[in-house]
User: Fold this.
Amino acid sequence: MSVNRLIKDIQSLSSYIQNLKGFTAILTHYDADGISSGGIFARLFSSLNKKFILRSTPDLSDEVLNEFFSITAQNYIILDMGSGDIRDIYDKWRILDGDKLIVIDHHKILQDIPDDPNLILLNPELYDLDGGKFGCTSVLTSLISYFISYDPYHLEIGVVGATGDMQLLNDVKEINQVLLDLAIKENMVEKERDFIFFVNKNMPLYRAITWNYIPYIPGFSGRDDIGFQIMRKADIPIKRDDEYTTVKDLSDIEKEKILEVILQYLTSLGIKDLDVNQLIVDRYILLREDDENIRTSVDFANLLSGLGRMQREYLGILLAAGVRGRVLEEALKVQEERRRILVKYLDMAENSVSQYDNIAIIDLRTKDFDHRFSGTISTLFSRSITLSDKIIIVLSKVGENVKISARSPRVLVDKGLNLAYIMSQIAKKLSGKGGGHNIAAGATVKDSKNLIDIILDVFREYGNV
Ligand SMILES: [Mn+2]
Assistant:
């Protein structure tokens, strides 16, 4: 079985990394998966007393790569990026001669892999696995690290990162199952099912009800006022004995009452064919975490993701590496700030949607919008109750350039749609770079008056949907 081959190669990469000599420079992606992976390696390298430097980046631009390779090191490791243009990266790195380059990633491989014993690419795509579904980078790095140190904390963060990459949503299989089984066996995590409204057990209830953004429900998700409204209708006091009511305080009857009011409200929003299963999630309790803010894999992953979007990756990497105390306090403050911004941006996006057949384009190029949130916006809309059957494309400005962030419904991918390829084709036409997964991809390109037409044309040509 291909997954056995992958495990074998993970194990040999473990001993390869254990035997690395000299200084190691690590570059990781700034999303929850990348931050988790970075934290895992930071913890591993520290425990092995290996000298390293760790950086994070939103993308692998030429500038970022040149700067990274200008670090004097014996080993270079790129995490959660690099498969799309493995040849270009290799060519840049090779000029340094003699050193080692390790790329651990799960994005689509869009170039020929150079044949060189000093280059190692670990990617589930090489084992007939869809990297978008299985074997995200934190799964790989946590297994690599666990096989070296047998430190079970690495498994916890693997679960957190995979949750952030949405790889543990429903059917856990293949290499992800290997990680999860180990994490359960080591008593790090425990599975629990519940309605999304009751997932955040310790938050004030009015907030917990609307806190979850998956699925994103316009006019509901993230809206404290709606939370208040629902509690009032269900006759649940906002506070009891001067403390906010939480999910923990609710009886089963009260829970049912709230559920009823919520479903009524969702119907009143005009949401048809509401599938209640969409509102139920599997989540993993992190058994070794005392702090309620990071007691579940969803909460921990959201925190890491938010820190990346807020340009505080260092806090996320420290958290993922196992640091708590003041780092966690600081991180929670940043998260509160991020929540305010996200509510504003979601509203902005809601008012910028144009639909073209099965494509919804959210054009934020002229808006006061931080491109670091474009991935979050496209993911949330692709999981929204109203647009989940559409390909979602978010356009935002990065300096003079445009960032395109795209998400596709699973059914279209199953019919053969490959967003990573489409993004690379769009990038070709607009002198930029693009890639990713078949279901989630992106590009950074030169802006153009006809940008939307060009995008739609490429979809017509290669989308066959
Ligand atoms: Mn990833």
Remarks:
- Residues 33, 80, 106, 136-137, 165 surround manganese (II) ion (CB under 6 Å).
- The chain has 17 helices and 15 strands.
